[in-house]
Amino acid sequence: MASSAAVPFWRAAGMTYITYSNICANLVRKCLKEPYKAESMNREKVHFSLSKWADGKPQKPVLRSDAPEV
Amino acid sequence: MLRQASRLISRSVTAASSKSVTARAFSTELPSTIDSTFVESWKKVAPNMDPPQTPSSFMKPRPSNASSIPTKLTVNFVLPYASELSGKEVDMVIIPATTGQMGVLPGHVPTIAELKPGIMSVHEGTDIKKYFVSSGFAFLHANSVADIIAVEAVPLENIDASQVQKGLAEFTQKLASASTDLEKAEAQIGVEVHSAMNAALSG
């Protein structure tokens, strides 16, 4: 049974739906008027610390603490 | 020996019951009773063990469909950070599905629609509320409940027209100069979203 629908262009380029959806949402947020823009950027800030492990010990952590960019 | 139990049962069940469910029923139409022939054969083979449960035994019963079409559509419009509309009874909703603007009335056929960037309007009497939706999904159920989920939805007044024009020009230029597939896709998305916003503001 052949697959039916044509794939969307972003799927064909190797992008997942979540990436596509997040890009769309970020673009819309960038086009808002103040103060809504500041509110939404504030809301979407992420803070995380990532550390890779080697030989059972955590290596130096990488700290990401900024608003997500497209 | 217990590993063989399922094999022994399927052998005895297929031998015992000549009627096998070859035509699959829809999940809303299946009876809630458990298959008695299976349970009997199981008890013969493994009397001390409970028969295995199926996923349907853990599910709540499906909401029953009204016999007549309800007069109002119940809308649940949610965003990741807020519940915009919760159980609101409206007359009609127009959603920006990928297949085009779709009007949803009470009694709409059950549908799952993927949304594209565009305007969603909620009609209540003479009141029309419009939102610009970035993307998401709309689940229309048989009992005239519509669950619409979007990642970002803003009232049209909150969009800055000059930034939209700037963005549109920027991404059109990026699309022309893009090299890799991924860059082209990103630029294409930018052009689509900004043109949708442009159309929303002017239309």
TrEMBL record, chain A:
<dbReference type="GO" id="GO:0046933">
    <property type="term" value="F:proton-transporting ATP synthase activity, rotational mechanism"/>
</dbReference>
<keyword id="KW-0472">Membrane</keyword>
<keyword id="KW-0813">Transport</keyword>
<comment type="subunit">
    <text>F-type ATPases have 2 components, CF(1) - the catalytic core - and CF(0) - the membrane proton channel. CF(1) has five subunits: alpha(3), beta(3), gamma(1), delta(1), epsilon(1). CF(0) has three main subunits: a, b and c.</text>
</comment>
<keyword id="KW-0999">Mitochondrion inner membrane</keyword>
<keyword id="KW-0496">Mitochondrion</keyword>
<comment type="function">
    <text>Mitochondrial membrane ATP synthase (F(1)F(0) ATP synthase or Complex V) produces ATP from ADP in the presence of a proton gradient across the membrane which is generated by electron transport complexes of the respiratory chain. F-type ATPases consist of two structural domains, F(1) - containing the extramembraneous catalytic core, and F(0) - containing the membrane proton channel, linked together by a central stalk and a peripheral stalk. During catalysis, ATP synthesis in the catalytic domain of F(1) is coupled via a rotary mechanism of the central stalk subunits to proton translocation.</text>
</comment>
<dbReference type="GO" id="GO:0045259">
    <property type="term" value="C:proton-transporting ATP synthase complex"/>
</dbReference>
<protein>
    <recommendedName>
        <fullName>ATP synthase subunit epsilon, mitochondrial</fullName>
    </recommendedName>
</protein>
<comment type="similarity">
    <text>Belongs to the eukaryotic ATPase epsilon family.</text>
</comment>
<dbReference type="InterPro" id="IPR036742">
    <property type="entry name" value="ATP_synth_F1_esu_sf_mt"/>
</dbReference>
<keyword id="KW-0066">ATP synthesis</keyword>
<dbReference type="Pfam" id="PF04627">
    <property type="entry name" value="ATP-synt_Eps"/>
</dbReference>
<keyword id="KW-0406">Ion transport</keyword>
<keyword id="KW-0139">CF(1)</keyword>
<keyword id="KW-0375">Hydrogen ion transport</keyword>
<dbReference type="GO" id="GO:0005743">
    <property type="term" value="C:mitochondrial inner membrane"/>
</dbReference>
<dbReference type="InterPro" id="IPR006721">
    <property type="entry name" value="ATP_synth_F1_esu_mt"/>
</dbReference>
<dbReference type="GO" id="GO:0042776">
    <property type="term" value="P:proton motive force-driven mitochondrial ATP synthesis"/>
</dbReference>
Automatic annotation (TrEMBL), chain B:
<dbReference type="InterPro" id="IPR001469">
    <property type="entry name" value="ATP_synth_F1_dsu/esu"/>
</dbReference>
<keyword id="KW-0813">Transport</keyword>
<keyword id="KW-0406">Ion transport</keyword>
<feature type="domain" description="ATP synthase F1 complex delta/epsilon subunit N-terminal">
    <location>
        <begin position="73"/>
        <end position="145"/>
    </location>
</feature>
<dbReference type="InterPro" id="IPR036771">
    <property type="entry name" value="ATPsynth_dsu/esu_N"/>
</dbReference>
<dbReference type="InterPro" id="IPR020546">
    <property type="entry name" value="ATP_synth_F1_dsu/esu_N"/>
</dbReference>
<dbReference type="Pfam" id="PF02823">
    <property type="entry name" value="ATP-synt_DE_N"/>
</dbReference>
<comment type="similarity">
    <text>Belongs to the ATPase epsilon chain family.</text>
</comment>
<protein>
    <recommendedName>
        <fullName>ATP synthase F1 complex delta/epsilon subunit N-terminal domain-containing protein</fullName>
    </recommendedName>
</protein>
<keyword id="KW-0472">Membrane</keyword>
